[in-house]
Input
Amino acid sequence: MAIKQRLILLNFLQFFIWGSWLLTIGAYWFQTNHWSGTEFGAIFSTMGIASLFMPAIAGIIADRWINAERLYGLFHIIAAGILFMVPKVNDPSTMFWIMLINMIFYMPTIALGITVAYSTLKSNGLDIIKEYPPIRVWGTIGFIVALWIISLTGLEKSAAQFYVASAASLILGIYSFTLPKCPPLGHGYKKSFIDALGLNAFALFKNTKMAVFFIFAMLLGASLQLTNAYGDTFLHDFARIPAFKDLIAVKYPAIIMSISQISETLFILTIPFVLRKFGIKKVMIFSMVAWVLRFGLFGLGDPGAGLWMIILSCIIYGLAFDFFNISGSLFVETQSEPGIRASTQGLFMMMTNGFGAFLGSRLSGIVIDNYFTLGDGTFDWKGIWFAFAAYSLVVAVLFAILFRHKHDKEAFASTVIH
Output
């Protein structure tokens, strides 16, 4: 199998695992178990807690001691076993710890997968800005396929969705050991204790521009968790209203939400053009404005006459996610040396899916319980989405003012190739 096809399969399975439960766990939580928003925020924050330290630690290990593809496979095999245990859990406290352990092993595989892909493409003399987005798009396709399988088999409200994720994780873990070797590139120089631990990636914070970039990556990471946590549950809740309960969008909300991932597949392919032409600052601003529209349209829409606004919101999500997540990863790659490549991607993951996810999940659950939960226990979804939109608008304005970066097309292209 050719290199590109092998990386395509890696990305497909990587995000198939996540797509099997990430958007539908809310329905299982609220519709089946009727647990609270604060408890759900705690569960969803497990990916943030794990990402505070595990991607960085995994990056250090991959830079210093163990081949990235082997570490990647080992983590997926362990996560498969943990996911298999989730359906046996019947209380929020135990669920928190099980999901936290799962996230400790899953979250670093996202950055490790990027490291494996970048390393493999570079070792074959390929331009990662040109070649990686069409490969990464298959990760989104994997996410979509998982969503459709879970929805059409009626598993949106069932714990069985975790069995599907477990099986995929085991397959990917075994497959990973057949991938091209990605040996550590950082063990050749041990100039200091910091270098020896691989913590030199954190030196990027000494650069004001990079420090600002990472802070706003954290704030955008919070936006991503808001839409992941509540989108599917938002549509499920319309079943309480007789006029909406029999509509397709309410019966199969995961399929409607999958339009977001379908949109991703299209916007990923535009990244080589927009990143070279506009530079990271403008691309990130595009993403931030898209988050404002994403939440605002959810607040205005409904599964009936307003379905077009929900669909438009899902289409806009593709721009919001890709222009932040994929472009941000490529930008960070241009700012790091080969010896700390995995550590730097781990740092980016820590800020977005670590601090960002933790703050977004925890605070949103508390805020929703205290300010947007009505007397009968239902949610004020319009207020929730407009509050999220206002948050995203403030982030966009501050980023435009505070992040200073001059885009050099030729220098940027040269850095990512070599």
About this structure: The mean pLDDT is 83. Residues 36 and 418 are 50 Å apart (CA to CA). The radius of gyration is 20 Å.
